[in-house]
Design goal:
About 40% of the residues lie in helices and about 25% in strands. β8 and β9 form a beta hairpin. α1 packs across α3 and α4 runs antiparallel to α5. A seven-stranded antiparallel sheet has the order 2-6-7-1-5-4-3. It has a five-stranded mixed sheet with strand order 10-9-8-11-12. With about 375 residues, the chain is an alpha+beta fold. Keywords: DNA recombination, DNA-binding, Transposition. This is Transposase.
């Protein structure tokens, strides 16, 4: 069976010197549009007590001179990103009163190079010659046929001429140079069911994932993520400018995001591979219903907001689908305090962080392993 999935492939620009000035102009214009829209939102917010929605901002910004610095769809994407940033802030404010709204993209008198997204009518792709033509806005064109022609190179195992469809192209400043991100629709062949076995996963913060296989428990700690977050967050804070993020600060943020993405991909690849090798065809993933709506205190709320349980589930789901592992989302309610052996759900069984002792059957277990075993049992996993 074949499925269609979305993939992002990174291409290095081979003619960097020829196109850098033009891309710098577009990146600066994207920041200008963001800042103008952010200022407009702030003004309306102060006057009405409400932040304007995406449609209102687009309607206003279309009449601003900077709007035509970019292709129309590229300018619209900047507003969509700002709207998403405000929505994320709203969600975080439910549990963290000190959360800050999205800021301005400015460092002193200069603007950082923002990512520019080119949608359907903003690019023309020539995969046979590894070239892509990117559109400028009318303000930056010297003549009607003025555009940016980028020559790119992807990984040896990536051939963009074979993808079903390139949805959009993103020009991204990585701190040293510009690179291209191709967001593509790809058709993949899926494997038959990996087996009849059932496994369960307990997702957490200290242990990112604890997996209960039919014959073994495996814990995946999150120490590396914590170290990266501490180092790069500190680097971003120490190099932040007075009027917005500096280039160094933005580099630190990007680097952290890249390392987190790599970690989650490797982790989920490893878990799905383990399932296939152990003939596990069903994987039950703990899903903390409404957990972000609760108040866990200042420190707890910040940790919870950075907990990527939804992202991990998405990665597991599509990787599992390709390799014949059905990934199910199961409510984790009471799994942390319920004994996986006898079913006793006395709250005091959870003695302390990491330790579970059942007052009925005297089971002594790692608390995360006990939770993962409950997830495995929820989908028909047999007792040991």
């Amino acid at each position: 069976m074949a499925i269609e999935v979305t993939r992002t492939y990174v291409g290095s620009i081979q003619n960097q010197q020829q196109v850098r000035d033009d891309l710098d102009s577009l990146g600066g214009s994207a920041s200008k549009i963001w800042n103008s829209a952010r200022w407009t939102a702030d003004r309306i917010w102060n006057a009405t007590g409400e932040i304007p929605d995406e449609g209102t901002l687009k309607a206003y910004m279309k009449n601003q001179p900077c709007w035509k610095d970019l292709n129309a769809q590229s300018s619209q994407k900047v507003i969509e990103e700002l709207s998403d940033a405000f929505q994320s802030w709203f969600d975080l404010r439910q549990t963290d009163d000190e959360a800050n709204p999205p800021g301005y993209r400015k460092h002193g008198d200069t603007r950082p190079k923002s990512t520019v997204t080119f949608k359907a009518d903003g690019f023309k792709h020539d995969p046979e010659n590894n070239r892509v033509r990117l559109s400028k806005g009318s303000n930056l064109k010297e003549h009607w046929s003025d555009f940016i022609l980028c020559e790119y190179q992807t990984r040896p195992d990536v051939d963009l001429s074979e993808v079903n469809k390139v949805q959009n192209v993103r020009a991204v400043w990585n701190g040293d140079e510009w690179e291209l991100h191709f967001v593509c629709k790809v058709v993949l062949e899926t494997n038959d069911a990996a087996g009849d076995g059932v496994a369960g996963i307990d997702l957490g913060i200290t242990n990112i994932a604890t997996v209960a296989f039919p014959d073994e428990y495996v814990l995946y700690p999150g120490n590396l993520l914590k170290q990266d977050k501490h180092y790069f967050t500190r680097a971003a804070y120490e190099t932040a400018g007075e009027n917005g993020p500096s280039e160094k600060s933005m580099w630190a943020r990007r680097k952290l995001a890249e390392r987190e993405t790599h970690f989650y991909h490797v982790l989920t690849d490893t878990i799905i591979t383990e399932c296939v090798e152990r003939d596990v065809g069903t994987l039950a993933v703990s899903w903390p219903e409404d957990v972000r709506k609760s108040d866990w205190g200042k420190t707890g709320n910040k940790k919870l907001h950075s907990w990527a349980f939804d992202r991990l589930y998405q990665y597991l789901e599509y990787k599992g689908e390709i390799r014949g592992v059905e990934v199910l989302k199961e409510n984790e309610w009471n799994t942390s305090k319920t004994c996986s052996r006898c079913g006793d759900d006395t709250t005091s069984n959870r003695v302390e962080r990491g330790l579970y002792v059942c007052s009925s059957c005297e089971l002594v277990a790692n608390a995360d392993c006990n939770g993962a075993e409950n997830m495995r049992r929820s989908c028909g996993g047999d007792c040991w």
